[in-house]
Amino acid sequence: TGLTRLQGQPGASGSAKLQNFRWIGKLSSEQLQVQLKPSSMDWLDLNLNFKVGDIEVSYELVQSLIQSGQRYLKIPEQGIVELDLNSLHSLDSQWGELGAAVSPTGELKLSSYHLPYLHQSFQLDLEGQPQLKSLVQALKEVKGIPQRELPVNLKAKLREYQQRGYEWMSF
After folding, report:
1. Which residues face 27 on adjacent strands?
2. Which residues are bridge partners to 101 per DSSP?
3. Are 42 and 48 spatial neighbours (Cβ–Cβ below 8 Å)?
4. What are the tens digits of pLDDT across the range 101-131?
């Protein structure tokens, strides 16, 4: 065929240097890990990090990369990760819909009433947080809330979900 056959061991010269340019994969909202810390009676501080292999990448770093128009993140000694912009923009929209606020220290704050949604949607780290675990359970299961009589001057017939909502708000 006219091609010269290579002799010896296969490999590439300088492959250790090329390791830094290895494509690791995509960074998306699915890799987000959320650690919660109660900051007051009704608010939670959220510590957000993405897990890429054995490396944690801060949410703030990813946001700054997106804002500066970058699509890739170089992980030292490991390679390059592509930012899944659609997924990450969707994540920002979710925080906005939930009414998340940024605290003076730069942390994301969220009402504790959103715990069931967070628990269902993200990987929550509730280790060492027995109160938060029980609050998630209580908010997910509206059982155990006593039935209450409606005010006598209320001239409306409530639907079942409205009745449960009234009882929950009165709890």
Report:
1. 83
2. 109
3. no
4. 876 666 788 888 888 788 777 777 777 788 8
